Amino acid sequence: MRMTELLRLVFMNLAQNKFKVILTSVGIVVGSATIMLVLAIGTGGKVEVAEQFKNLNAGAIDISYEVNAMEFERGMGGNRGGMSGSVGLPGGGMPSAGGMPAGDFSGGGMPDFNGGGVPGFSGDERMNQEKIVLSEDDMEDLTVFVPNISDATISYTTSSDIEGGELEEASSYSIAGVKSNYMTISNMSMAIGEFLSEENDENKEKYCVLGITAAKEIFGSVYDAYEEVIYIDSRPYVVSGVLEEMGTVASGISPDTTVFIPYSTGIKYITGDDVSPTITVIADDVDLVEQIIVDIETVLSDSYANAEFTISDAGSKMEAASKSNETLQLLLVAMAVIVFIVGGIGIMNVLFVSVKERTNEIGILKALGCSKKDILLEFLLEACFTSMLGAVLGVMVSLGITPVVESFSVRVELSVQGAVLSVVFGVITGSVFGFYPAYKASTLIPVVALNQE
Fold first, then answer.
1. Please, how many CA atoms are within 13 Å of residue 257, restricted to the half-sphere of its CB?
2. Contacts of 303 (CB under 8 A, 6+ apart)
3. CA 38 to CA 421: how far, in whole Å?
4. Could you report the per-residue pLDDT of 344-374, keeping only the tens digit for each?
5. CB-CB neighbours of 177 under 10 Å
6. With contact defined as beta carbons under 8 Å apart, do 441 and 366 qualify?
7. pTM more than 0.85
């Protein structure tokens, strides 16, 4: 039988059983849609990770301190500074969203028990145990005594009420106290104006830099915010510049909604000594990060005996986020494979029923001279076209439900390659699961098939 005649016969059979073909392809529709969305979500996850860490230097190492119960029990030595009380900056020096008000215990300070006392400690003893606050002196020690460090900065965050611009009432924003090199270390750039200078910090001047979202919320636009005045805790601050849009970092925190002020200015007018700063150092070579962390621990142990600091590097955070995304993608792929198998089994079952129903037809075709190959190709092509229809419908379904998936804050990056791969998987599924029923049909004996009721 010629291929054109075979194809015409296949399309005639499919056209006469439209409803059955659609029901048969439902499993493939779901599988195809799942494959396309899996690839889109996986790609979206990779893009999301890249965007989250675009403002982090791969060699960035963060050092912070949080008081814990074990340290209360064994005591501390060689303490510096005052009590810790606000949230530090995560990897790369990006500010925490909202921060914590000065004096809050969640950023490292300890809550009061039984009227402010800690069992086993007097009031003075408890204060001595809490007096570990990283300082600019610690930052300088690290740059001097730890080799292979190219730059370092110190920063902290808190939250405070802001007034001014188009705000009808005071609104709480995350406030980050930073040094002048913070922008360079964090790979940020200015949309307009200039970042905070060393003079601003040394003279404790009331200048600020706004994240782009904060600028738009307070003043309506970036250009309207430039060189205007906002009031932080009722004190006027001049807006020296606005940052370009940065997006989110790994912890889901955005510098776009943060207000940056000089480090010393914030301590003098907003937080006092109740801060828990984060020191961020930059390694000359990312391959030396592990050794630098060991050296940092050694230097800090000389200043703060028995204290345990939280030290993390941006590279490890990037790797962890990437692995998490890959794990999610593997789980989704496994789910898509299972759906395809279920859909393939459905096609196999329907084809077996179809062979049973069309036994006489097969017998007539064989009596007219059709070979086993012709019968095999006919049923195999029917399976392939059915699965292809399901795959195409699946791609269309995935396009339709993408907005629903995105409404759950899932990044979806659809692609032509994903659509093509979904269709290919669908056709392969139909071919694999349709082969055995087609083979059974091709092996029927003509006389037996013609006498089948």
1. 17
2. 78, 80, 138, 141
3. 11
4. 888 788 878 877 777 888 888 888 888 888 8
5. 29
6. no
7. no
